[in-house]
Amino acid sequence: MNSYSLRPRPPRRAALLGGLCTVVGLVVLIAGIFSSWSVIVVVLAAIVLAAGIVVLAMVAYSMVHHAIYVDLTEQGFRVHGPGMDKKGSWAHVTKVALTPDGSRLVIASGAIKRTYISCPNGGQDPVMKALVADITSRVGSTGH
Q1: 60 sits in which H/E element
Q2: Cα–Cα distance for residue pair 49/29, rounded to 1 Å
Q3: pLDDT digits 0-9 by tens, 79-89
Q4: Contact by Cβ (8 Å): 119, 57
Q5: Cα pseudo-dihedral 99, 103, 108, 84, rounded to 10
Q6: Could you tell me which residues come within 8 angstroms of residue 76 by beta carbon, excluding any fewer than 6 positions away?
Q7: How far apart are CA 19 and CA 49, in angstroms?
Q8: How many C-beta atoms lie closer than 10 Å to residue 96's C-beta?
Q9: Residues 108, 95: Cα–Cα separation, whole Å
Q10: How far is CA 137 from CA 14, 28, 101, 108, 110, in A?
Q11: Residue 46 forms beta bridges with which residues?
Q12: Does 107 or 143 have the greater pLDDT score?
């Protein structure tokens, strides 16, 4: 069995904003407490610190839980991720199509059933390229 994990790009701006809020909030909070600044400044610093921690937690959560996993076996495939769990057999696959930019793969099983695999990092992602090559070798040909 071959397994692939398609993960989104790290949200750099959100991580930077969360880290900046955390550091600034912590520094102002500590300085405010030890310098006997106004209670309003200390409370605002605590709010900025808490907001930074929440943003960093959301960044970590999104990196872990927003991935798409694809498992390929000799018998078939399974695509699962947040809110999705699709399985199929290679014997039932009628067509495999790839978008021109290589970021989206469609596995057709008959006239109606479709399984979509979208790569958040685009078609140049090495994991997506390896996945496409693996599926192509199992099915035989890829159509556009």
Answers
A1: helix 39-65
A2: 8
A3: 998 888 999 99
A4: no
A5: -150
A6: 87, 88, 89, 90, 91
A7: 9
A8: 19
A9: 5
A10: 39, 58, 20, 16, 20
A11: none
A12: 107
